[in-house]
Task: inverse folding
């Protein structure tokens, strides 16, 4: 369930968003409303929403200042920006703070729903590769051979020469035996699991704003940066640099 916080100084807008859409049908729930950025920050601390739908210009604290402070605190909630026509260019800078989309007021409910679905799709993609594959499967469902293979991958994923042959040799079985057991017990091929594990580690590394994409590629076992970028985008839907930009928006200015 996607938890939504609505931040807008116009009560009619807040209530219209909260009550005018069947959020449950979209797999969402509005957990709180706030009338300005300061109240929005308090609501984030209390309710921990996954998505913040916020106006730009509000009294006491505007939407961008709110997002700036939240990002500085480490808040990773998605954001959708609402703006009047005169604020449009101003709202573009909100993308720096991880905004998934921005909508011009007045907007149709269908437009907002489409934006929220972008967030749901982004979460789905991240969940498919952002969870450690080794932890995602119950230990009781894995044989000794598969567990050993997974442990070997966890220790050697950064080795450029790792492949099904070296993994099978390490766990003392044939490639065919390992391939069959691994697929049967995890639904992954060995190569797909290795790729997913590398992408998971790359996501972890990209959360460091100082690291370069080529350094990430090397640290997860790819000599060819372009190939790494292709693999990353195929698995997540976005490039490594786009992922890094999404989580590391500037917090010292617009």
Result:
């Amino acid at each position: 369930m996607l938890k939504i916080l609505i931040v807008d100084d116009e009560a009619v807008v807040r209530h219209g968003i909260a009550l005018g859409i069947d959020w449950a049908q979209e797999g969402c729930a509005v957990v709180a409303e706030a009338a300005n950025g300061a109240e929005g920050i308090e609501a984030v601390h209390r309710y921990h929403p996954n998505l913040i739908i916020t106006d730009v210009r509000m009294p006491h604290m505007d939407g961008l200042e709110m997002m700036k402070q939240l990002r500085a605190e480490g808040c990773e909630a998605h954001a959708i920006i609402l703006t009047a026509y005169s604020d449009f260019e101003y709202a573009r800078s909100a993308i720096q703070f991880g905004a998934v989309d921005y909508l011009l007021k007045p907007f149709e409910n269908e437009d907002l729903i489409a934006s929220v679905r972008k967030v749901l799709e982004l979460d789905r993609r991240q969940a498919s590769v952002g969870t450690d594959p080794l932890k995602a499967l119950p230990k009781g469902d894995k044989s000794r051979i598969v567990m050993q293979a997974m442990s070997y991958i966890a220790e050697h994923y950064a080795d450029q020469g790792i492949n099904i042959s070296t993994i099978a040799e390490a766990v003392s079985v044939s490639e065919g035996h390992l391939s069959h057991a691994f697929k049967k017990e995890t639904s992954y091929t060995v190569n797909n699991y290795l790729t997913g594990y590398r992408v998971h580690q790359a996501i972890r590394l990209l959360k460091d704003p100082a690291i370069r994409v080529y350094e990430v590629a090397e640290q997860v076992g790819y000599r060819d940066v372009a190939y790494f970028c292709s693999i990353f985008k195929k698995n997540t839907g976005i490039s490594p640099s786009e992922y890094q930009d999404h989580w590391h928006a500037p917090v010292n200015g617009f």
Summary: The chain has a mean pLDDT of 82. Residues 133-247 form a domain with the Arc Repressor Mutant, subunit A fold (CATH 1.10.10.60). The longest strand covers residues 28-34. Residues 1 and 28 are 5 Å apart (CA to CA).
